[in-house]
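Long-time lurker, first post. I've been practising inverse folding by hand and with some scripts of my own, and I keep getting stuck on stretches where the structure tokens seem ambiguous. Below is the full token string for one chain I'm working on. Before anyone asks, I'm not after the true native sequence, just a reasonable design that respects the backbone. If someone could post their per-position residues I'd love to compare against what I wrote down in my notebook.
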């Protein structure tokens, strides 16, 4: 089988979307998936309305899985001039990662870069690039420019937008991947510090077949963690031929 780096790893990352799981659900999730999860992303503003949040975070910490607050909450805080307050609250929870995005609220590019720089002084920042509106199509050169700007501002990783539905950003509204866009981004920026949101099986399989099992993938549904690891190891039909050289 393809070799997989041990955790903590810097490639082959699996970022999982937590849409508001309770502590008991997290326990079940970790029982089957902990070795395969590199980061938990608390979707949108779900952290504000999740009962048992402290207990849930304790469980993730005990499993040595970092947690990140999703970018929608950062956008809302920015729109109200309360970014410092958000950062302090996130840190008070023991969370060390935060996402900066502009897919819903139109934060100007230069202001977004300043926001990344500001937050990077306090915690690890992942910057998301891409629109959540399927009809808002950015040219490849715009993606590349925004990705480079995010890295220059201090982002640790850049997350390429796909939404939880896999129907925006890197994808058309039909969930079809914009392959030319992905190829141009990788050609210009490289793979190592990019995370591609790929919530659907066929999207995950495409990235693994094209770039190998060590590609970084995000917005993975909690129920698909073992499925994705199977894809990475060539244990599902969608990747057997590529990873095992089957005739």
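-- Answer (accepted) --
I ran through it position by position. Result:
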């Amino acid at each position: 089988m393809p070799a997989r780096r041990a955790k903590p790893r810097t490639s082959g990352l699996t970022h999982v979307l937590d849409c508001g799981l309770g502590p008991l659900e997290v326990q079940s999730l970790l029982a089957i998936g902990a070795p395969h999860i590199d980061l938990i992303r608390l979707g949108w503003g779900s952290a504000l309305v999740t009962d048992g949040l402290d207990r849930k975070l304790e469980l993730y910490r005990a499993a040595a899985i970092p947690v990140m607050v999703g970018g929608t909450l950062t956008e809302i805080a920015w729109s109200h001039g309360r970014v410092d307050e958000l950062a302090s609250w996130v840190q008070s929870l023991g969370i060390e990662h935060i996402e900066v995005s502009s897919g819903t609220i139109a934060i100007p590019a230069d202001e977004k870069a300043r926001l990344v720089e500001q937050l990077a002084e306090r915690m690890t920042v992942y910057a998301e690039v891409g629109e959540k509106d399927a009809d808002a199509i950015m040219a490849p050169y715009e993606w590349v420019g925004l990705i480079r700007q995010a890295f220059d501002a201090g982002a640790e990783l850049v997350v390429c937008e796909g939404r939880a539905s896999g129907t925006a950003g890197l994808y058309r509204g039909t969930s079809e991947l914009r392959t030319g866009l992905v190829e141009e981004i990788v050609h210009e920026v490289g793979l190592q510090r990019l995370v591609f949101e790929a919530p659907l099986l066929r999207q995950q399989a495409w990235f693994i077949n094209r770039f190998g099992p060590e590609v970084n993938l995000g917005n993975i549904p909690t129920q698909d963690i073992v499925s994705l690891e199977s894809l990475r190891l060539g244990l599902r039909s969608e990747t057997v031929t590529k990873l095992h050289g089957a005739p």
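A couple of notes from the structure itself: The chain has ten helices and eight strands. Strands lie at 14-18, 39-42, 67-69, 97-100, 124-129, 157-160, 194-197, 217-221. Happy to go over any region you disagree with.
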